[in-house]
Amino acid sequence: MLTAIVSARGAQRWNAGHPWIFRSDVVERPNEDAGAVRVTDQRGKPLGVALWSPRSEISLRLLDREADAALDAGWWRTAIERAIVRRTGLASEANAYRLVHGEGDALPSLVVDRYDRWLVVQLMSAGLERYRHEIIDALRDLEAPAGILARHDVPLRAKEGLETSVELLHGDVPDEIEVREHGIRYLAAPWRGQKTGAFLDQRENRALVGRVAKGATLDCFSYHGSFALHLAARAREVTALDASAHALARAEENFRRNDFTNGVFVEANAFEYLKARERERTRFDTIVLDPPAFAKSKASLPAAIRGYKEINLRAMRLLSPGGMLFTASCSFHLTKPLFLEMLAAAAADSGRRIVLRELRGQPIDHPEVLTIPETGYIKGALLEATD
Ligand code: SAH
What we know:
The structure is a single chain. A hairpin with a 2-residue loop joins strand 8 and strand 9 (118-123). The protein is built from eleven helices and 20 strands. It has helices at residues 8-15, 73-85, 126-129, 132-143, 155-159, 203-212, 226-232, 245-257, 270-280, 301-318, 336-350, and strands at 3-6, 20-22, 26-28, 35-40, 46-52, 58-64, 96-101, 110-115, 118-123, 147-151, 166-171, 177-181, 184-188, 216-220, 237-242, 263-267, 284-289, 319-329, 354-360, 379-385. The protein is α/β, with parallel strands linked by helices. The protein has three domains: 3-64, Archaeosine Trna-guanine Transglycosylase, Chain: A, domain 4, CATH 2.30.130.10; 73-177, RNA methyltransferase domain (HRMD) like (Transcription Regulator spoIIAA), CATH 3.30.750; 199-385, Vaccinia Virus protein VP39 (Rossmann fold), CATH 3.40.50. A seven-stranded mixed β-sheet has the order 16-15-14-17-18-20-19, with helices on both faces. A six-stranded mixed β-sheet has the order 2-6-5-4-1-3. Strands 7-8-9-10-11 form a five-stranded mixed β-sheet. The site of S-adenosyl-L-homocysteine has 17 residues, from helix 7 and helix 9.
């Protein structure tokens, strides 16, 4: 294995618990294609073994602090098994959840999601790609899946100089897989759906919403209706709203699958819809706001905050007395303090008395490591209008 030498600043990042070293902190670059390298500081002190991505801005990703760790089949199997063990108990609640959450599970740039008997994987760095066989073998050995699909159609791979495509790696993977989640069933679309086929990261928040839902309810940004389904189990009626007709068609299908007949499906822009309902003084007893990431970059944060504040302010005004709002943001750049600040500002302008019932984050299958901010992106709040 070749060696990379990193600056004091690079070494300091690792010592502070973050696995990435950027291009500018690599003092001596290994003369090798992507793979794994040993890393030392400028005095020659060994720091560990890392994935090496020659074309990426993130040059090194720490895998093991043992400088002589052999990254053989056994190493990968142990590391993946450790992540899987962390999920013990989840299978009784749902048949779809994340098995490996990249840096959150000390397996940088690797994502593995389980959908019933199938796995969807994403190998998102050039260094990791070198270990494709070890990773797939370990997954087959540990999980005995009926099929493994690579959702490699992600922009991150292009930044690493890797091809972007959707590729079947083992067995067969169907177009649609039925997900069972806290008593609700819906179809995931592993080949073409968003992310790896569904938004698994909101699973526990959907269950929470299912427990508090009542009366007339609204699910904005509904996608395939996964929050709406949990609302429907308890509420009188559910309005599932999305800008995409295709997403709504799938939401309707999911309602039929659960024998729910209380769904209304509205194709609209959420901003316009909320504004119009406010003008009409409509009231909802339960509202869900789970928008796409408005802040895709740091530069777009101010505009994003204005957007978040607008939809939250309007939703607060639409709540009936005692009504509940579950609101979320999946923008990494909108930090937890900023999220709460935005909600407080919306509450102040809404003229309502808004109580924070519960602050929410990611489920345990999406572990957020305190020293690696990038592992955490979902913020959620369950709010109640008490006036
Ligand atoms: N709540 C979903 C995930 C939502 S993804 C779940 O838990 O599975 C975001 C959704 O917002 C997408 O389906 C997208 O079509 C929709 N969307 C994006 N912008 C929108 C807008 N301005 N108005 C309404 N829907 C929008």
